[in-house]
Amino acid sequence: MKLNKSWGIALIILACLSLVSAANHFFQPGQYLAREAQQLGEQFGHNMTQFGQNMDQFGRNMDQVGNMIDGLANGAGNLEDWYGADIATKQDTQQFPAAGVTQVSLDNQFGKVNITGDANAKQITIKSTKRLHRMGSEEEMGRYFDDVVIETEKQGGGELSIRTQRPDAGNGFHPSMAVDYDIIVPPGVELHLLNNVGELTTTGMLSTVDAEVNVGKLDINGYKGTLRLKNNTGEINARGGKNITNVDVETNIGAINLYLPADANLQVDAETNIGDLETQFSELAIESHGPNKRIEDKLGDGQGTLHAHTNTGAIEIRKE
Hints:
Layout: H1 5-27, H2 29-74, H3 80-83, E1 87-97, E2 103-110, E3 113-117, E4 123-133, H4 138-147, E5 149-155, E6 159-165, E7 177-185, E8 190-197, E9 200-203, E10 209-215, E11 218-233, E12 236-253, E13 256-260, E14 266-274, E15 277-279, E16 286-289, E17 292-299, E18 304-312, E19 315-319
């Protein structure tokens, strides 16, 4: 028996409907799409985890670079590293009555600075050591030494100002000279320090410490109330804080190591763009976004403030 044309078309349509129905039954597109979405999500999550791990590794690698730069910066201001033992020196000591002096300021271009707080100090003692690579005659060396002047002046408001004054290099050749300072002050005297190139260290202070270095290590052991430290290239270490109200520490390239009392009360904002961030204070939560790590939290009642930032380098916040 032959089917007419209309019956043939009807059978074809019926067959197509049956096929679609069977496909819908067996393939279940909703579940299929759900499975595909789940697989894509899992793959995306895996890729992002891998990306985060890669960025963490990048951060650790940059930490190593920062540590290498730290090493170079921490040796800055040491002429012996450049010229060996062929260094001439000239020392000088000045003393001023400590009575009436509430702050000491220092402006130095190149050299090492060490300041010690001594509770028994009745005078402020300034020992300076000029260091110069040996060159030319003894007469020329003497002239070079004399050209660099240590200026000290008592100013209003109880400030004792110390400044390294160098000749204008535009007037002719003048060799680089490092000037090191060893200064003893009463521990309650405020410090406002600027050392362009070279390590800066303070010990035993019970006052505000405000210090800035362009290239070199900053090492602070002892302060009270306020601590402000700024560095461009080099490591920063700070400990021994008393009655802390404000800590502001910043470096471009270098590690930051902060030691705080276990009962510190501070609002903490610490961030490294590229590097590790660690703390011994369990109440501080660390946020991680690739190589960037940050803490925005508080210790105790958060009455004081702590700000620490480095572009490249690790940050450690530890208990004393």
